């Protein structure tokens, strides 16, 4: 086993990390193993993971059910192309997703990652209108404060100010952006909340294929939670103007907000839905884009009659087996009670942050706890400070947040909360 210093030195010579300089001296921590809610570093320190590895490891790490599913599948078939072939793990997973998602969604495209699922959703929407002889409907409406991924199609519908539009201007498709959805999740409903969205649809419906946004919780774009009535009104607006509704549930799916899917807070079903992150319980990369029978039949009924996308590792049997095991594990557990308990504890234990001069807001929804600062986080100081307190958190922008695994015990969650309050008080 390489030493910590040797591993980090080798990393710095050749590895580019996400959202980091290609040649970087930023703090870096070497992990040797992960089990339950703990990451063990190569120097022996243990960290309670407050991020579920970017919100995916909802059952924690090395869960026996997930390990067994992958191990069993590995002994039979690790991969086979999905073009012209099929297999039980993929079919069973698609059947399960159709059964548990909102009723109109009947068709599933299995993708490699969340960003790819968004690309697939955009293509589905565009091909839907091309098939109807309306190729001019090729723009999308998104909302400020949203995040949908880092590939070019996904970037183009991500917040144009806080996203990466300024770096890739000219290479990105030009879409339309309404005001960030509101009011807040627990605030009184305001009838004029959709004014910006309604105006864009009224003016541009003739050239718009779909509206895309994250339901209820805007995550990487700002960790904002908005009123369920917004989605209900938006669904009606899309229907009125003949525009599809795409809901990006990649971060909010599988219980994170307190409902199995966040759109269920509003009782709304989209035309296209993107899933990912927690789909496999954090064991392997996999995502999905679901659509209604109407969307599928329309595309199939006109030239070229095929959907124009096909990832090499689409429907990977190992990933599909992990996803099936994760979904069964979740639905067979008391996940709703666990998420409610996490929510109540975070509400209580993050409340002291409200008294700190540096804090602008504290908000909690389901298993998501957010402390928004008035100024951007100094990562060079804050990240190591959390590690010194025995917790793993990955702040970004002005946000210090936790999205812990659902299996976390109250004592471990308290250590995360105490670390957030303590570090923000000091730093």
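^ structure tokens above, recovered residues below v
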């Amino acid at each position: 086993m390489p030493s910590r210093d040797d591993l980090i030195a080798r990393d710095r010579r050749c590895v580019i990390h996400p959202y980091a300089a290609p040649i970087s001296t930023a703090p870096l921590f070497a992990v040797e193993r992960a089990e339950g809610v703990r990451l063990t570093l190569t120097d022996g320190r243990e960290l309670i993971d407050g991020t579920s590895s970017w919100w995916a490891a909802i059952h924690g790490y090395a869960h026996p059910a997930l390990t067994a599913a992958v191990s069993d599948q590995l002994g039979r078939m690790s991969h086979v192309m999905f073009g012209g072939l099929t297999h039980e793990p993929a079919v069973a997973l698609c059947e399960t997703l159709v059964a548990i998602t909102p009723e109109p969604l009947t068709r599933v495209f299995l993708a490699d990652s969340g960003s790819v699922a968004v690309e697939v959703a955009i293509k589905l929407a565009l091909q839907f209108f091309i098939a109807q002889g309306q190729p001019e409907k090729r723009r999308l409406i998104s909302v400020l404060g949203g995040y949908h991924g880092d590939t070019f199609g996904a970037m183009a519908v991500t917040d144009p100010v806080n996203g990466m539009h300024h770096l890739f201007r000219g290479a990105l498709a030009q879409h339309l952006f309404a005001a960030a959805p509101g009011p807040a999740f627990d605030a009184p409903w305001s009838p004029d909340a959709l004014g910006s969205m309604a105006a864009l649809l009224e003016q541009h419906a003739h050239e718009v294929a779909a509206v895309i946004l994250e339901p209820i919780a805007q995550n990487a774009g700002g960790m904002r939670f908005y009123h369920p009535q917004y989605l209900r009104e938006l669904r009606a607006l899309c229907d009125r103007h003949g525009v599809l509704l795409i809901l990006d549930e990649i971060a909010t799916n599988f219980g994170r907000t307190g409902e199995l899917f966040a759109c269920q807070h509003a009782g709304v079903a989209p035309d296209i839905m993107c899933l990912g992150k927690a789909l496999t319980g954090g064991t392997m990369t996999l995502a999905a884009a679901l659509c209604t029978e109407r969307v599928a039949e329309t595309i199939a009924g006109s030239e070229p009659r095929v959907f124009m996308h096909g990832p090499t590792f689409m429907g990977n049997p190992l990933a599909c087996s992990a996803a099936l095991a994760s979904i069964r594990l979740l639905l067979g557990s008391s996940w709703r009670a666990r998420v409610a308990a996490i929510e109540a504890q975070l509400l209580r234990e993050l409340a002291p942050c409200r008294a700190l001069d540096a804090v602008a807001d504290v908000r909690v929804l389901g298993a998501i706890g957010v402390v928004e600062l008035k100024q951007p986080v100094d990562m060079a100081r804050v990240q190591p400070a959390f590690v010194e307190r025995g917790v793993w958190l990955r702040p970004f922008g002005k946000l210090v947040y936790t999205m812990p695994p659902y299996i976390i015990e109250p004592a471990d969650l308290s250590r995360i909360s105490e670390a957030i309050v303590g570090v923000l008080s000091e730093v």
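The chain has a mean pLDDT of 96.
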